[in-house]
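QA checklist item 7 of 12: single-chain prediction sanity check.
[x] sequence parsed
[x] length recorded as 554
[x] structure emitted
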Amino acid sequence: MTPANLAELVRAAARSVFVDRDLDLSLLPDAVTVERPRNPDHGDYASNLALQLAKRVGTAPRELAAALAASLSEADGIASVEIAGPGFLNIRLDSAAAGALARTVVLAGREYGHSTRLAGRRLNLEFVSANPTGPVHLGGTRWAAVGDALARILRATGADVGTEYYFNDAGSQIDRFAKSLLAAARGEAAPEDGYGGAYIADIAGAVAAKHPEVRDLDDDAARELFRVEGVALMFDEIKASLAGFGVHFDTYFNEKDLHARGELELALTRLGEQGRTYQRDGATWLRSTDFGDDKDRVLRKSNGEWTYFAADCAYYLDKRERGFDQVVIMLGADHHGYIGRLRAMAACFGDDPDQTLEILIGQLVSLVREGTPVRMSKRAGTVVTLEDLVEAIGVDAARYALARYSSDSPIDIDVERWTRAKNDNPVFYVQYVAARTASVARNAAEVGLQRGAPDDFRPELLDHEKENELLKALGEFPAVVASAAELREPHRIARYLEELAGAYHRFYDKCRIMPLGDEEITDRHRARLWLNDATRTVIANGLDLLGVSAPERM
């Protein structure tokens, strides 16, 4: 029995009590929450429904709890219901109802943990969006891991998600990039405001090899060639790096297209129609202070040039015009000041930013070796890159490490910790359970131990304390996935998997799955194999949501 099934039973019991007492059924909540109590002695699950409803119906909480307990005790699978404190319900399942979850999980397979909770929601999720002026740095790598995991989790809860990379191929940073490439090709020092690092020389050399005629062009023509070809090469490299990290986007959106298609003009017109623009000193301004921004923002300068913020406005409008209900943007710690202006922008378009726009801010990441921060990239010169991280600890460990912590917390990634094959390495700890459960299944097949038909499964035999603990942990997975989706917190999946891994290790140590020697295979062995395979299913499903592999051997 899953917590969701139990919650339905609790609500059904409440409905029965309301009918018997002729109470208003509209006072019943649409959904009931049941939780695992911190102290296992208090039962398998607990509910505070009586406390929630007592005041609404004018009944003492313990009196209502007693009625709910009496009704709920009659339901199949409920061993007992006790009333605690001011009116909490402490619920114990019978072993058959608890154990049946193992079969449910195995039969559901990859779908276990999925739901339709966010069905009907269409979200645009933009992340990474690093400028094509250098490799993806460590902060962008964090968003690659977290953003891709979040997209997987949102889809697992029924949302229609479009992932997007905004390709900033216009503006002054591209001018500086082109100047840096030209200088490198000529063997000159990088411009004072340019870009350094070996990658600049690599790209400049590749462009010059492809277009030898660049040496004979004047400065303007040469810079334009390096701009076009260099940006294309850099972005191809960025996409290849992300693909090697297991991250692929549905859409790569070019900023230049906004300009070419006249979308900045369209956005300006739309904002003007809303009465949100005005002219001052020859420039066009947005009345963003009307919606809480700290100052009004320039959209078009007095010389006719567009600002970066104008492109932000056009890009937001483009996403909304493509039918997305909500625009979710992941930004680095240095972009915290963007939240107010972007929310004001959405409001200026006539949207409710609480409904149509969400900004997630990610904090800094450091790579540490032997207690000392790794500060220099072999190739980028000044930053640690995605490739540096993968080379140091591998793709699985990198993705898990970056997704394991709340995005609003700075993190240090210790190379030694994340590469050693010990239980203090979280990804090893979880992946080892994936491998051990697979090994158990292989060994079982070798001695002729099979789960058997689902109808022959005897869940009541899973009555050991550690089996019950593991079953309860498996039952929490759907709620954890739903919570991670709604709160935009993939780290909840990682922390849950570590708890599940611990529960499995304790079960494995106390409950023998395989028959000893010539011992006869019994239904208890088969029941425990169901539980082993259910654990393998949930570990694999959870790791997949993080974009991490579930190895069969380690």
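[x] summary fact logged: Residues 219-244 form the longest helix (26 residues).
[ ] second reviewer sign-off
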